[in-house]
Amino acid sequence: MCSRFHNVCGLFWTLIVCGCSPAVPVAVPPPGHLVQGIRQSTLQPGPPSPVRLVRNPVEGDAEAIETGKRLFGQFNCAGCHAGGGGAIGPALIDDQWIYGSGAGNIFSTIIEGRPQGMPAFGGRISEDQTWRIVAFVRSIANLTEDPAPSPPASGTEKGKAVFLHGPCVMCHTIRGTPAGSRVGPDLTHFASRKTIAAGTLPNTRGHLAGWILNPQNLKPGTQMPATLLESQDLHALLDYLETLK
Amino acid sequence: MASKDYANNRFSGMDQINAGNVRNLKLAWSFTTGVLRGHEGAPLVVGDTMYFVTPYPNILYALDLKNQGAKKWEYKPKLQSAAQGVACCDVVNRGAVYWEGKIIYNTLDAQMVAVDAASGKELWKTKLGDINQGETMTMAPIVVKGKVLAGNSGGEFGVRGWITAVDAAKGNIAWRAYNTGPDADVLIGPRFKPFYARDRGKDLGVSTWPADHWKIGGGSVWGWISYDPELNLIYHGTGNPGPWNPDLRPGDNKWTAGIFARDPDNGEAIWAYQWSPHDLYDYDGINENVLLDLPIKGQTRKVLVRPERNGYVYVLDRQTGEVLSADKYVHVTTSTGFDLKNGLVLEDKSKTPGLGRTSRNLCPSAPGGKDWQPSSWSPRTRLLYIPHNNLCMDMEGLEANYIAGTPYVGASVKMYPGPGGHRGEFSAWDPVRQQKAWSIKEKFPAWSGALATAGDVVFYGTMDRNFKAVDARSGELLWQFRTGSGIIGQPISFRGPDGKQYIAIADGVGGWAGAIVAGGLDPRDETSALGFVGAMKDLPAHTNQGGALYVFALP
Questions:
Q1: What is the value of pTM for the model shown?
Q2: Do B524 and A118 touch (CB under 8 A)?
Q3: C-alpha span between B6 and B226 (Å, rounded)
Q4: Chain A within 8 Å of B83 (Cβ-Cβ)?
């Protein structure tokens, strides 16, 4: 079901394994599957973690915005939101966004509906049509020019994303990034360290990979949990950690 | 009932408060409703208790008149919050009715509820409409011979309009009459005798539409119902046809934008008349029908006076449906005059909007010379006090795509002030002389109801937060009180448990006219709120949202 739906499905269905066992009483989620959704609040419990933004595949595309405008009329969005000034539904050209102004927020508002009267269009509109309407809505709201997050361009950027979006961020600090947890060691200058696993292993790429994937195998009793990563993600993460001098 | 009496006169026979002493009127107490949307409702006084229904979420309050409005109880119905998404023009409620120990009213999600007037306990609740078809209910019901009468809203959602009678004791549906479709559904039978030939024929509610369009054609019943016990007839208007774009529904679109006289016992239609056959401008026909006996050409006639949305005050013979007179009470450009022989306005065909065609300088605009805001009749001055609008518009027809539960309008509208620049007026109309006696200009549309009293004082409220008392004979301003929010409610007068006369009004700006404030709309889009925002850009500078009851008395 997710094949044509990468961006949003990625959010709904990304399950993150985390097994941090804190040495000090810190509020950490219990072990198990952690779910990320589309965030509507800027308030979050615990240390700041990065927002995973959803990209509109047709964001800013002139042809898509034009089609989106037509669809905005045909699906009767205009009946409630007028030309964006609002009527039965709220204005879309002001800066008040009850359910978020991100492309993913608007997409899910259209598909899921909202409890105060926004109908759920899920099952009545295609994904492609929805993205075009999202592109149009963001264009009249002057949101299109906001820099959309670009996909990780190099290995180290991708690795940083793996770190910040995955379980590592739950326990470690890397200063200058949103990672700020004090459960595990500070990794800000990780690449300068000679050893890992509390001095038991030399800091090499091979040892580090083994340590991340199965720490109990290298140091029984350690509090570092196993982190299962796809090979691509693992290597990107290693690339990134090697830059932290 | 919200309209005070079956004849919809809204006249209070009390005269303790009069033109000589009204300047001393003081606030006795107030009560915040806790709801911020448009308060179009009328307070209802029964014995020692005042009842008030808020806009959605339609809370019913019972307040103790022996104890400065102390809260006796409140009743909160369980509603579908999504109903707010199919309410065209704010989430208003226009009031409740009392009948044999029960308070009965309609909820936005199209239910009718009966609540024990003493305890606040729910007695029955009946689902009458479906929000997924775009149906809501906003009107104040009336009870005639043990049947509660009410209809649906949703003319902007392609609903099929109806009026329903519900057994007041148990909540069972007694009858339902549709205002479009086959005669069997409209409850047209052998007793149906319309005055004009064009209204006679079989199944006109089908044949005056493109194929099957009557199923989504509008003609809702969201305004006022009158009752003449002697003739045993109820009178109710019917709303606009849908969509607004007239090119999409050739034909007379019966029986939308019109009026029915029906037998309240079984709903049977006795006569019908269309104010605006094939309506071009959203001229809903739902306004109040004020039942009077007036001398017309030397004879006393049983008439029905109707300040209509199209800008004319009609006087109809209420036994037959014949138009006796129709005169402009606002600036009108959409028609050039009235043809009494045919009983129709003379439309200015050059003003017809259509698909991809913008028609300009259309007066009155879509909310009409006057919208729902009910007028009041004084038998002492023999004047009808009419709160109304002074607005014009440009309108363009657009394609309309029917999707159940979403708007079905097909028009782009921009409204602006009519000649003179003021957007509202409060006029005293003489229906016998067929002319205005006096008129007061208001900055914003006069969107509140009117109340005339035997003290020869007339009350109304303004959207810029003034509750006013004016001289019934001259229109001179005698007193005003600054409320917290703009006023679109219905003033009432009542005798308190202490025998004194009181005046009550709710503030709480909103409704279609106040949508810019109630809905927080963006004035940069003039087409917002079906084009009303363009004319109301400065309203937020004059009032915030609010919602409270104010009760006044002489010291």
A1: 0.85
A2: no
A3: 5
A4: yes
Cβ A91–B399 below 8 Å, yes or no?
no
Q: How far apart are CA B103 and CA B126, in angstroms?
A: 14
Q: Does B356 touch chain A (CB under 8 A)?
A: no
Q: Is B502 on the interface with A (CB under 8 A)?
A: no
Spell out a b/e string for B347-368, using b for 16 or more CB atoms within 10 Å of the CB, else e: beeebbbbeeeebeebbbbbbb
| Pairwise CA distance, residues B426 & B386, whole Å | 6
Under 8 Å between Cβ of B506 and B548: yes
Active site members of B: 156, 240, 282
- The structure tokens listed for A114 are 């909202």
Q: In this complex, which of A85, A91, A119 lies closest to B406 when CB atoms are compared?
A: A119
Among the partner residues A78, A86, A118, nearest to B85 by beta-carbon distance: A118
Q: What are the φ and ψ backbone dihedral angles of B256, each rounded to 5 degrees?
A: -80, 165
HEC string of B330-392?
Answer: CCCCCEEEEECCCCEEEECHHHCCEECEEEEEECCCCCCCCCCCCCEEECCCCEEEEEEECEE
Indicate the residue of A83, A117, A124 with minimum beta-carbon distance to B82: A117
Q: What is the pLDDT of residues A23-80, one digit of tens each?
A: 566 555 566 777 777 888 888 888 877 766 788 999 999 999 999 999 999 999 999 9
Nearest-Cα residue of chain A relative to residue B57 = A116
Query: How high is the ipTM of this complex?
Result: 0.93
Cβ proximity of B79 and B131 under 8 Å: no
What separation, in Å, do the N-terminal and C-terminal C-alpha atoms of chain B show?
28
Q: How far is CA A203 from CA A94, A190, A193, A196, B296, in A?
A: 53, 9, 7, 5, 106
Do residues B290 and B369 touch, judged by C-beta distance below 8 A? Answer: no
Joined together, the tokens standing for residue B402 give 């029917």
